[in-house]
Amino acid sequence: MVNLDVSIVFQIVNFLFLIWALNTVLYKPIRSILKQRKEKIEGLEQGVETLTGDATQKEEAFASGIKEARAMGLKEKEALVEAAAEEEKAIIDRISQKAQANLVEIRKQIADEAQSARSALEKEIESFSEAIGQKILGRAI
């Protein structure tokens, strides 16, 4: 049979003291450390989520900026190509006009040279006809 004496009371008091001491010395600091760790992890997770959101927004802004820059670049390129085409057309027109003027001048010069050659040959026609006649007939005319 079980004897209930004063030692059981000491055992209960000792057990309660031990629970209180372990709770104060061991369990509360461990629980507070775990609580701090959990808060820190939650803070880091929120920071990660915030930074991820910021990174996504910045990436979207960067992508839209690149898209806008490409669009502006294409517009500028088209404007430059159009300006170059207009300048090329103007240059070709100037060259064409200059070539037409040179062509008219050269034709006039050729006509003048042909006229002077014709007048020079007309002066010598009689002597040429006489020489040809002598060669054909084989005697002086």
Tell me about this structure.
The chain is an all-alpha fold. The protein has one domain (8-36, 46-137). Helix content is 93%, strand content 0%. The protein is built from 2 helices and no strands. It is rod-shaped and about 185 Å long. The termini are far apart. The relative contact order is 0.03. The mean pLDDT is 92.
Give the amount of beta strand, in percent: under 5%
Order of helices and strands: HH
Number of helices: 2
- Which stretches of 5+ consecutive residues score pLDDT under 50? none
| Major sheet size, sense and barrel closure | none
Name the helicity range: over 70%
Class from secondary-structure proportions: mainly alpha
* Rg calc: 58 Å
Number of E strands: 0
**Morphology:** rod-shaped
Q: Number of folding domains?
A: 1
Spatial separation of the terminal alpha carbons: 184 Å
Mean pLDDT across all amino acids: 92
Features:
mainly alpha
In short:
The protein has two helices and no strands. The protein has helices at about 5-125, 125-135.
Task: Produce the secondary structure layout.
Blueprint lengths: L5 H118 L1 H13 L4
